[in-house]
Amino acid sequence: MKSLWNDKEVKKLGQDPLALRVYTSRLLGRDTSLVMHGGGNTSVKAPVRDFFGAEQQVLYIKGSGWDLATIEAGGFAAVKIDTLLRMAAIKELTDADMVRQQRAAMLDPNAPNPSVEAILHAIIPYAYVDHSHADAVVTITNTPDGRKRIKEVFGERVLIVPYVMPGFILARKVYEMTLAVDWSQYDGIVLLNHGLFTFADTAKESYENHTKLVTKAEQYIAKQRKMSFPNVFIGNPNTANTLLSLAQLRKAVSRVQGGAVIALLKDDKQSVAFSRLPRIKNLVTRGTLTPDHVIRTKPKPAVIGKDIEADINEYAKTYKKYFDRYNDGKLKCLDLAPRWAVWPGSGVVAFGRSSGEAQVISDIVDHTMQAIQRAEGMGGWKAVNEKGLFDVEYWELEQAKLAKNPKPLGLQGKVALVTGAASGIGKACAERLRANGAYVVGLDIKEGVTVKCDVTKEADIKNAVEYAVRHYGGLDIIVSNAGIFSPSMDLEKMDPAVWERSMQLNLTSHQRLMKAAIPYLSHGIDPTIIIIASKNVPAPGPGAGAYSVAKAGLTQLGRVAALELGAKGIRVNMVHPNQVFDTAIWTKEVLEKRARHYGLSVEQYKTNNILHTEITSRDVADLVCAMAGPAFAKTTGAQIPIDGGNERVI
Asked: How does the average pLDDT of the chain come out, rounded?
């Protein structure tokens, strides 16, 4: 591990201790082998003047919710050191009381909550303290003779602390162990199964002590035997079957979790090789890389066999038994679903209520897989025991955080595919679906969408549908919107090319999209197809034969689909917009021509309905979102107008 300290960058910061603290915190945060997604914490001790001008010795410590990679000065909470030291001298203190007292000792009540390790940082008698969950150090400790190996690596230059619960218990343990020690004999503290602390009176020395100790651990591991991975062939010819199984897996996990999840498939060479390791189930069910990961990943993953549904049900039963073993009767069980799964032969899968959550879990899994491989070469992978993991997973502080989590959005975790998404109604639908929590794959022949796709080409449609499933794990919502408004032309003078183009884009492409999507929708969460049809279906106009007939055929297609797909739980409904003028269909020329046809001004034509209101793409999109949600959960085969009230339709 190389030091990233740069004297030129530091010179610009001057001697401000907090600025230097921010700088080296970010250096640590850049390296995911040290900290990931909010892990680790850093501090600096400094004198400050309070509101009344009196000098106070404070501990600036990383605040809860901040990430070391991007932390700013405002991410540190200033806490009175004397209060923290007085708390360290108390033999027993609940973590909830600790948090309250830490907040009471803050100079700025608007600052973030101080880290739960604030007391431990205060105990260490140096200005700068750096704490990480360094993979190399933790991997060595996660072996049967971890303490012995740490001594081999660092000799007597580190204080070795046995694993105890983070928070006050850990702080009190270190306090008791260091009441009469000479701190100068130590370069750092190794918390078994947890992480590494380094410290010094300068930011550079504390940071570089960290890099030196981690380097020693890395060099030690490099000399050990590694578990060998089996050779794998990447490029499974049964991609469609794999994706269908992935959608089935996502549905099973979503059902147990109680809401739609994103399923992120990791089928790179390393992940597939890991999934094929001998005794893989035994390996991955021994615990997490560090106990704090259990908050994200649960104690262990699911291991998938031939019967996906049965495997997820078994995982749920096993998790409930685990909860019951350690529940004191006061705790509320979390959902029973896994946060990741090992899928032998296919790789690993991370699950999250959001794409970001799934990615965080995926990152943790990457580091866990590597640590398992290394630890197995050093006598075996041995993490914190089950009770230790339970105590962290159901820690009162974590339970309090969960209670404050925002309510999921209406379409949270759903996966939607929208055609014609570059402009008009399609673009508005994509934006509103995202705003309601869905993950949207937008298709259009134009640039500026997720997947550039010509919906008249079957191969393009197939690739786009598979893209959605591969990136998010399944498919729940289809907004079949792509279309054109054909030039006005009497049937007697109809250009065959205009007719064929309308049928191809306004009708046939939608049937091909359904054909490609139905197998995945069959494993969707409350799956639905919403077809953007037209007012011209119930009330066609002269000269719009090519458009009206295609849209009528599209509506009939939707009705047939509703009949065929109901047994699969797939809802199919049609929306009939009229005069949505902020779309590409309604060019200035078309709008003026249609207004003249009815003897109206453009403004009169825009509000030419019973409610005298203008219909916008956003209005249609809001209706589409409602139809994709629970309000329409028991509606299929319906044709719903959004036209301000049309006399001819009524």
From this structure: 94
